[in-house]
Request: fold
Amino acid sequence: MAILYNEGTTLAERVDACLDDEFAHKAVERAQDVFYDKRNAVIGELPNWEDMRHAARAIRNRVNNNLDYYVAEFARNATAAGAHVHFAPKAEDALCEILDVFEEAHASTCVKSKSMMSEEIGMNEVLEEAGMEVVETDCAEAILQTAKDHPSHIVVPALHLDREAIARMFHDELGYAGSSVPEDITRFLRVHLREKFLAAEVGVRGCNFAVASTGSTTLVTNEGNGRMVDTLPKTQIVLVGIDRIVPDLESLDLMTSLLVRSAVGTKLTSYFTVDCGPAHEGEGDGATDVHIIMIDNGRSDILGSEFSAIERCIRCGACLNICPVYRHITGHGYGSIYPGPMGIVMTSCLEGYDKVDKLPYACSLCSACTSNCPMDIPLHDLIRQHRVNMVAQGYAGPIERRAFVTAGKVLSSRPLYDVATKVAARGMKPLAHNGDSLGPATAWIPVLGAWTRNRDFNRLADERFRDWFKKHEKEEGSAPEKGKDAR
Amino acid sequence: MQIAFFPGCLVDMFYPGIGIAAVHVLERLGCDITVPEKQICCGQPLLNSGYAPETMPIIEQMVNAYADYDCVVSLTGSCMFAIQHDYTPYLQDKPALLEKQQRLAGNIYEFSDFIYRVLGVTDASAVLGSKLEASATYHKSCHLTRLLGIEEAPINLLKSVDGIDYVEMAFAERCCGFGGTFSVKEPEISCEMVHEKAQTIIDTGADIAVFEDAPCLLNVQGELTRMRDEGETSREVRCMHLAEVLDNR
Reply:
């Protein structure tokens, strides 16, 4: 799938489509409200959430600032534990490594647990093109794979689909004949997937954190599918972003606690897996051949840029769950597998401004994401930084640029400001109705119309505050420069 | 106490009444107020749209207008945050201006915080004689609440007004959708956001919606008016700035 889907559509087109999809819109609103309460509850029961956040930020910074050291340490220990470690600078390199593993294992089938990295590098498409069977085993991912649909959230990717549609789609695609009760659908999927699990030659999974001191990779899941991907196929591929590393088990404890509480509002997920190397002799289950693919794919470039803070991201989705824009345009509005605030920052970094249209402008800079982020990433600042870069690199239109240049001059010069406000006040006066309001009749006016199409605007006052104050000052008989110190 | 007052350009142009109310309140509390001639706008609309170099003249104008005052009171939280924090990265190669901005950053207070914390006024009814018979809800604006951490001051001052029956709105700290130029650059998204905010306000059943930041007021008031005009609600909710509530006697 790669990072962007629906390439070629504009942000405005996607937003319109999403706002029209009433089910998805309402589903996201409801989900956000549930997440909000659950997250606040599990965070509220801790005495030291802010301390944990700051400790986590320090750990992430330490690893990212010394990434070469930690990548080497992780690789050394993972190799010592018996895993094969491969390095992939780019998505293509990772895909080649994956294909090589399949070839060596003479494999043509695989089961997968949810992995953002596999989506980022577009693994499924490439494997399928090469004739392999790829089966998503996470319930939501299985739904999306069957529906040939795109994820709308990084943690709960099928949030936008309702159970009726899912039951119908399973009926059409997989012959499901049951009801739309979630338990029935799940039971069906379980039976369907069980055969796939037992037959698969390769298991592919992602990694929430890679522990440098032990060489182990970890996974948090709620469905248990991750463990079956992990233990049933004889060959295992673990996709690890180079930015997933934590130094040791102690920091893993802190990170996992922050991740799960932020992501789903629980203390821990149903399954928490720590994997280290292949199955040893005499062990009953587990892969005998483990391949860990460490993927950079633009991450070290981000680390060297003004966006390095985003590399602290642990993909918990807390910023999506609080974002008032995501709430309305849902994940599909962003057109990226990484939606929401972290998605705007990551997608713009990884794909470049040529491809993202006006994505960094899909944000009111309200900072809710920043305060909700367990890694204390200044997300709204980074989004604004993308805007600054886009304008500096010529991505703004000439008319807009001229308007802002003019605004800069008017708002820094009293004479210009005086003229502009007087002219505008006079111009707006006849447009007003009900006293001071500018209503839908003004929707044809550029810029103002964008506002008044759906809500009223206030007309400029006849007398500005500063004009009143000048008179007021005279009445009070006070000196104009009072309050100024002697410097 | 001598203070330099910064109303913000929206108040200057659209809501002089809010600025006037704030001046009355501050004067009643013994402040000797000045409004520097040169002050206009904090530059956020440009800065937040990505026009950093284009904002420089505004930043310079703003910093120079207020740099010589020992106590500056800003009526809008987001403007204050911009002056205090957002300017800093863009002044790194202008040491003289940076020094002035840093001094200003330390001398600037937000209106409600200034009254509550600096002047120590916690009971508006007792000290100012503020009185308004109404049920009131309060919108927690983004920059004020989250970035400046000012939450207690405006709510407690509002609650202390004689006759005010305070009702909390759901998700009071959720953005109203203004976001400066966001409101006209992405109007479809902005309108969804303000619609939801307006509905939450209506749902409280309050007579008045109180704001501490004029930009949010402009946005929500426009939506409430439109909803009433189009018959979406029959409720008439009056939007007021906290300064206006405090000024009411």
In short: Confidence is low (pLDDT under 50) at residues 479-483 of chain A. Residues 165 and 180 of chain A are 8 Å apart (CA to CA). The longest strand of chain A covers residues 235-241. Chain A is about 50% helix and 10% strand.
